[in-house]
Amino acid sequence: MRRGSLFQLILIGVLIGAAVSAVALLIPWLPPSASVERGRIDIVFWIVTAICIGIFAIVFAVSIFSYMRFRARPDDDSDGPPIHGHTGLEIAWTAVPTVLVVVIAVASAVALAKNDHIPADHMTVEVTGQQFAWSFKYPAGGDVTTTELRLPLNKSTELKLHALDVIHSFWVPQFGQKQDAVPGITTHLKITPDKVGRFPVICTELCGLGHALMRSWAIVMKPADFQKWLKQAKKGISGPGAGLAVFNNNGCGGCHTFKPASSKGTVGPDLDDLSASAKKAGQPLEEFVRDSIVDPNAYVAPGYPPNVMPKTFGSLPKSQLDALVQYLVTGGKQS
Ligand code: CUA
């Protein structure tokens, strides 16, 4: 091969490689990483991507070069010269892919082993999926229940996943891992968040009509803030003030206006005049409120669409549900 040809071939390869690398690097294909586990997955991802770009550039460059250089002339009907193998080339195209596959396998095995290892010093959160909402219970906080997952920064947390009806799947894109929640068994997922912030929790297993709505948030807090929150939440759900605590823990104020809780949500109906709503529904006040929490579609307020409020509040521990109902029916008075 002449020197000029080799230069041409390399030039094409470098240009293609640079163009594809730019596409890979300049476009933010993935959401930013927010956990140690996701960081490991990203390393494997970029190793594989780099290998693919290299192979693509070589194959593409040789194809383009051959197409330009060895194209038959219009009047040339002769066969090409016979070729009987090339031992060096065959050894190369066996050895190189073997090395590449071994590199990918080792990197993946290391990432998987580290991501699955749950250290002795970890926190546990019970995660329950049901059509069509998530709920989170914190054994360390006296079984406080929330609809948004709260996690301390830089602390490994083991999620124990349960499902009440069908198979769901827990996924926070910024945490990089998915795990199914399967009825009848407990599955596990370890997360070590390394960024403070608010990240979407998505159900990623088609689980019914409301699958697309089965979303929540994972809130990563500084460890001191998290401990403060957990302590307050634990204290809040027992004794006086329990109603307001359950109201706040479960994010009721995000959707509902309720003056005693200083909440201004407008997604769902105003809760300040529940007796009027109960009258409209033709139900005794306390029954109306309890039914509306446990089965939100029982009475849908005029002007509001059904299937917006999650049904997951029906699985609140009984003492917390009672406190919430009392809090609402008494217009914010605490027993
Ligand atoms: Cu639960 Cu999709």
From N to C, what is the helix and strand string?
A: HHHEEEEEEEEEEHHEEHHH
In DSSP terms, counting alpha (H) and pi (I) runs of 4 or more, how many helices?
8
Could you report the average pLDDT, rounded to the nearest whole number? 89
Strand order, sheet with most strands: 3-2-1-5-8
**What percent of the residues sit in helical stretches (DSSP H or I)?**
40-55%
Main sheet? 5 strands, mixed
Radius of gyration: 29 Å
- The poorly predicted ranges are none
Number of strands: 12
Strand content: 15-25%
Give the names of the bound compounds.
dinuclear copper ion
Secondary-structure-based class equals alpha+beta
Tell the overall outline: elongated
Give the termini distance in whole angstroms.
91 Å
